[in-house]
Amino acid sequence: MTASTVPGGPPATGPAFGLPIRIAGRSGPWQQIRADLDRHGTAVVYAHAEDWRPDQAAGPRLKELLGRQDWDRYLEQRHPGVRSRFAASRVLLKYAAGAALQVPPDRLELGYLGTGRPYLRGNDSLDISLSHTDGLLLVGLTSRGAIGVDVEDAHRRFHEAGLARHWCSAEESARVDALPAERRDPELVRLWTLKESYSKALGVGMQFRFTDFTFAEEEGRLTVRSAHQDSGGEAAWAFRTWTVGADYAVAVAVRSSGFGRTDDTAAHTMLDPGFMDAVASVLADDPDEDEAPGTDPAADDW
User: Fold this and answer.
1) Residues of the chain with pLDDT under 50
2) Are strands 21-22 and 42-48 parallel, antiparallel or unpaired?
3) Please, what is the end-to-end C-alpha distance for the chain in angstroms?
4) Contact 139, 130 (CB under 8 A)
């Protein structure tokens, strides 16, 4: 399975992106994550869920890799497929972030904001995002500011069902309707992933209406016009879409912090050597720490 630019899809705005990196298992290639972060400030990673089944990717270390909060959430999942995908996505995310920060994955602890968005406790140099669909896991990492990623079944049929009216602006709907019939659904899937990734990078999920902002191609690049007050302005954003193999549509949105990227993300150069051990100890001993919000699989995609 390879990644490629969506046919006709515009290039990224602002900084460039490398192609999504396939991680087939614990062997990597992890060095490519560091290379993309060094070159672009952003890395996008994908994996087959089958390659990251918990019994293969973590084995007896699963509880240690997930950490207390996610271990409890893992046990609460009743459907075996949902449980496996939940664990696989977190283990992949920790391995990818560990490669970026040059620390073992079990030294990292995930936290969750009130919206359910994950973050790395004790580290503000690397922003993360997570998405998954049946069969594919997707992780985004950036040292530039904030990131959102989304993956969707590329074969979904939105147009005839009329579903797009709930999340396309009038301008987007008119543009899609003007396309040849065979291009309408692929374009709607692409717009959906873009809107999902954009809302994740904003940190609001689906808390504001997708019809309130519009994606367009202007002078060969993707731009967004938003009614959301905190969108940060057009110049702050970079977007890219790809297809992965023939079955998945992938999108990434990066919002620049305005301070440039963090060139050195290695945890050992930023933190006191005992800091992560101290954080892990406090988390393990604190019975009053808030649990991660929710166990609804539909809300578990950041």
Assistant:
1) 1-14, 229, 267-298
2) parallel
3) 23
4) yes
List the beta bridge partners of residue 22: 46
> What predicted TM-score, i.e. pTM, was given to this entire model?
0.81
Q: Which long-range contacts (CB under 8 A, 24 or more apart) does 161-164 make?
A: 164/188, 164/191
Question: pLDDT tens digit string along 156-198?
Answer: 999 988 888 888 999 999 999 999 999 999 999 999 999 999 9
Residue found by looking up tokens 């689906």 in the block: 206
Interatomic CA distance for residues 302 and 299, integer angstroms: 8
| Residue 96 to residue 84: CA distance in whole angstroms | 18
**Residue 24: partners with Cβ closer than 8 Å, 6 or more residues away:** 47, 48, 51
Residue 177: burial class (beta carbons within 10 Å; 0-12, 13-18, 19+): exposed
Helix (H), strand (E) at residue 5: strand 3-5
Tally Cβ neighbours within 10 Å of residue 109: 20
CA distance 179 to 175: 7
Question: Quick one: pLDDT at residue 283?
Answer: 39
Q: Which two tokens stand for residue 128?
A: 């993360």
Distance in angstroms (rounded) separating the CA atoms of residues 207 and 196? 11
